[in-house]
Amino acid sequence: MHIHILGICGTFMGGLALIARAAGHRVTGCDAGVYPPMSTQLQEQGIDLIEGYDADQVQLKPDLFVIGNVVSRGNPLMEAILDQGLPYTSGPQWLGENILRSQHVLAVAGTHGKTSTSSMLAWILEYHQRQPNFLIGGVAPDLGVSARFDAKQSLFVIEADEYDTAFFDKRSKFVHYRPRTAILNNLEFDHADIFADLAAIETQFHHLVRTIPSHGLIIRPQDSPALDRALERGCWTPVSYLDSPTGWYAEQIDPQSVRVDFNQQPQGHIHWHLSGEHNRLNALAAIAAAHHVGISPQQSCEALSHFQGIKRRMELRGTVNHIRVYDDFAHHPTAIALTLAGLRQQITDQERIIAVLEPRSNTMKLGAMAARLPGALADADHTFCYSESQGKHALNWDAHATFAPLGSKATVYQDLNQLVQAVVAHAQPHDHIVIMSNGSFGGVHDHILNGLDHRFSE
Fold first, then answer.
1. Which amino acids does the record list as binding ATP (predicted)?
2. Among residues 304, 323, 357, which one ends one of the domains?
């Protein structure tokens, strides 16, 4: 079958393209921005890419158009597909019907930690020669790629996103995946651009729960009122609890060591460089899911002790004069708070944390979580916020007023060069600069590192 993918350079759709190619299909695609690294990865796999959405792409005459959720009405190619009555479907639906139906799907859902937890789970299975298939919204160095498929293998780990499927299917992506093992990491309000309130997201999670078979397993934290409400609307699947003294429990022994218990019995220790409560809980969820497919907790602990982390999750980008610069994919106040608290636990009282924040996600831009940001940044010694004055990333709220409670511990800049200069001038040896954004942030990481290098080489 020849499929043509609209929006192919997104993380999910690019991964889907690799999976379709591995499944034996001819794959082509288009995007408004055909750019590395995804474009390079796709072209290396023999996937032809077209820049833009010109209507004449219908002349390719694929058997099926697969539509990414970046595509909306008014897109010239999409309008031509609709006008000519050509066959089309969404990426999640195609994946569910053509690939996942024959797999034991291990889905990782939740507001936070999906990429980290699914990477940990896939690594546990990979480490113990289970050769999992996977589609993850990030790249773990241990796995090398974000997506992989071999029809001879039966386990499929997928990052199960609650964002909507396509312009013609407003259900969450994850309702198409039909998991047998489902991790529900947490549930908070997010995606203010498509969900009116938390109750709307709870409904989508309930729809996911309705698809999990009675012989499957739901893995969830003990304390989550929102998940309680979602499951109280109907649950037909056994539930295993995390962070529960009588279920799965993980205790931080020291900054680099976590002890794992199950049913009040010690199971093993993880020795790693990752920090924070969020990584402890992500690891626990991955261990519980791996246990459901036959990997012992002790084996999982061994695998995670060799886990290197994933890109853009407190990824160290460089060090200059004992100043460490990190890149972190921050999209929500809870994630910001957990990341900074984890770093604070690892460093001495004499070392400072400098947060450099771009509130870029749709939820952040719309201001739904703005009031929570000062509290989320409490562990930072100083916060530099970039508030774009105009353009698609401009904020709908007053950053100066929002960060006023932090007083002299926060400054707001509308000019990226001025922000870089201020961060470089403020930094001192043994600082930890954490750059937080869910986008490229104008290459600010390299600009700060270059500025520091210039400052301290003079």
1. 110-116
2. 304
